[in-house]
Design brief:
By secondary structure, the protein is an alpha+beta fold. Helix 1 (3-17) packs across helix 3 (40-52) and helix 2 (29-36) packs across helix 3 (40-52). The longest helix has 15 residues, at 3-17. The model has no long low-confidence stretch (mean pLDDT 90). The protein contains eight helices and eleven strands. It starts with a helix and ends with a strand. The protein is elongated and about 70 Å long. Strands 4, 5, 6, 7, 8, 9 and 10 form a seven-stranded antiparallel beta sheet that branches. A two-stranded antiparallel ribbon has the order 1-2. The chain has two domains: 3-66, Arc Repressor Mutant, subunit A (Orthogonal Bundle); 73-232, Chorismate lyase. A hairpin with a 2-residue loop joins strand 5 (122-131) and strand 6 (134-144). Helices cover 29% and strands 32% of the residues. It holds the Pfam family GntR. Residues 1-69 form the HTH gntR-type domain. This is GntR family transcriptional regulator. InterPro entries: Bact_HTH_transcr_reg, Chorismate_lyase_/UTRA_dom_sf, Tscrpt_reg_HTH_GntR, UTRA, WH-like_DNA-bd_sf, WH_DNA-bd_sf. Keywords: DNA-binding, Transcription, Transcription regulation.
């Protein structure tokens, strides 16, 4: 293990064990350099890595401090209630922002999930979810024009897919089988979610079905900032 990794491991252990509370000041770069007998630049790289991982924040000329990671939103991962309704039900100042609606090229997995033919047109609609104007999740829904004929013209107005489905006569929803995976964000994802590049994202890939008719309404990919949620499965 390199000296940099030893220092990183020690600080992570101290933070996880509760030695430092939220907003506590961490030792200075000089103090840690003397303690571990390493150049100050080594400690600086450790602090840069901890900041990228979302554990600390720095104040110019004052030092590095532990970030509050306890203010996390409890989220039940289910598809029978809209994300908007979940957030408002928990009392959070929530809003949803439509950021794109665009047609996609043929994708075997998505088309199969939607149960549509290769000749069908499929659109993806992206909504950015914000609490206190802070981006916390990106929802991308794939829907077929054969099911929603106005999706190409109306898609950019949608902030809640469930409301859109209800307007089209679908009122009882059920989730398809879901896939959970953890990824590190791409440049697009960490820029749009305004998160450090080493904070993992929890990605939920699922679908929504109308219970009355069995119609597949959407294929969904939801990118959650892992530092913003406690997940209830």
């Amino acid at each position: 293990m390199t000296e940099e990794m030893k220092i990183l491991d020690k600080l992570l252990s101290d933070i996880h064990s509760g030695r430092y509370d939220a907003n506590d000041k961490l030792p200075s770069e000089n103090e840690l350099a003397d303690q571990f007998k390493v150049p100050r630049m080594t400690v600086r790289k450790v602090y840069e890595r901890l900041q990228e991982m979302g554990y600390i924040y720095s104040q110019q000329g004052k030092g590095s401090y532990v970030k509050d990671r306890q203010m996390q939103i409890p989220l039940v991962l289910s598809g029978n209630e809209s994300f908007t309704k979940k957030m408002l039900g928990l009392g959070y100042p929530f809003r949803s922002k439509n950021i794109f609606c665009e047609e996609i090229d043929y994708h075997q997995g998505i088309y199969h999930s939607l149960s549509v033919e290769e000749t069908d047109r499929v659109f993806k609609i992206g909504r950015l979810r914000l609490v206190n104007d802070r981006p916390i999740a990106l929802h991308v829904s794939y829907v077929a024009k054969s099911v929603f004929d106005d999706i190409d013209s109306y898609g950019k107005k949608i902030t809640s897919m469930f409301e859109y489905y209800q307007k089209n006569g679908f009122t009882e929803f059920a989730s398809k089988s879901s896939l959970l995976k953890v990824i590190f964000p791409t440049k697009f994802e960490w820029e749009i979610l305004e998160c450090p590049c080493l904070i993992p994202l929890l990605v939920l890939e699922t679908g929504c079905i109308d219970q009355k008719t069995g119609t597949v309404l959407e294929h969904t990919e939801i990118f959650y900032r892992s530092d913003c949620f406690n997940f209830v499965i």
